[in-house]
Amino acid sequence: MEYPKHLIEFEKMFASEQQCEEYLINLRWKDGFNCPNCEYNEYWILSRHRVGCKNCSYKFSITSGTIFEQSNKPLSLWYRAIWLMVAQKNGISAMGLQKIMGFGSYQTAWTWLHKLRRLTVLPDRRLLNGQIEVDETYLGGKKKGNRGRGAEGKIPVIIAVELMTKGTGRIRLGVIPDVKRKSLKSFIEDNIEKDSELITDGWRAYKSITGYTHTISNDTVISDDEKILPNVHRVASLLKRWLLGTHQKYLVGNNTQHYLDEFTFRYNRRKSLSRGLLFQRVMEQAVKHEPIKYSEINASYTDKEKKT
Fold this sequence. Notes:
This protein has 308 residues and is of the alpha/beta class. Helices cover 40% and strands 14% of the residues. It has twelve helices and eight strands. The strands form two sheets. It has a five-stranded mixed beta sheet with strand order 6-5-4-7-8, sandwiched between helices.
């Protein structure tokens, strides 16, 4: 299916609301439109994002069952918000989206971005495989007390990085309740293929995880553990700079995982030749994902986060 390769093509493809509706119809019915009532393949475009079957006159909304359901905003605004989110290397903050889109409410921009972050996890994504560096980092900025494992008042995040012959491949990030064996094992089994080689430091919780080849770094005695697992620590550094640079915060609220998912989506597509392909992937998820109510998002986030 055709997608915009750059901004000029994007503006041409979605210059009108009808073009946006046609694009959505083509995404939902990739093999050609079929009326859900009689399976006829021709339709009229009606008002309020509805179509009517030319055979049986059945009318229904093309946004029903999608992320756009019940939105009173034009599809053209949604498409531009998605483009702004994926086209820029570091994404966009809610404040930035509000200013560019001209939203009267910061809350609207904040809610839209949280909805869109839920589209960055593809349900059929492949597990990591081969050689995988695994380690943890902590989010929450500088605080008094212990550093590293056992740090209080911070969010533990586990990072897995796929190693390639040259450089790194894909990554996975996950919020975990603690760094005990059960939490580490659950993340590893959900994200890494069995029989892969796990490369870790000497943390004892990794040693008893079965089903994988386990390699402990030879340099575990070095105090600067960036020398032990350099790829994981590089990803952790990029993550923290992104959170601070784009979102102006170290701590990202109760649903940290959605920020991690967006970062993972960006990192794993960092070599993509076209930002338009990222737009296409998010749009494909938008028509498959069940609608998300504002109340669901609002209940999941702290008042502190909504002010940042």
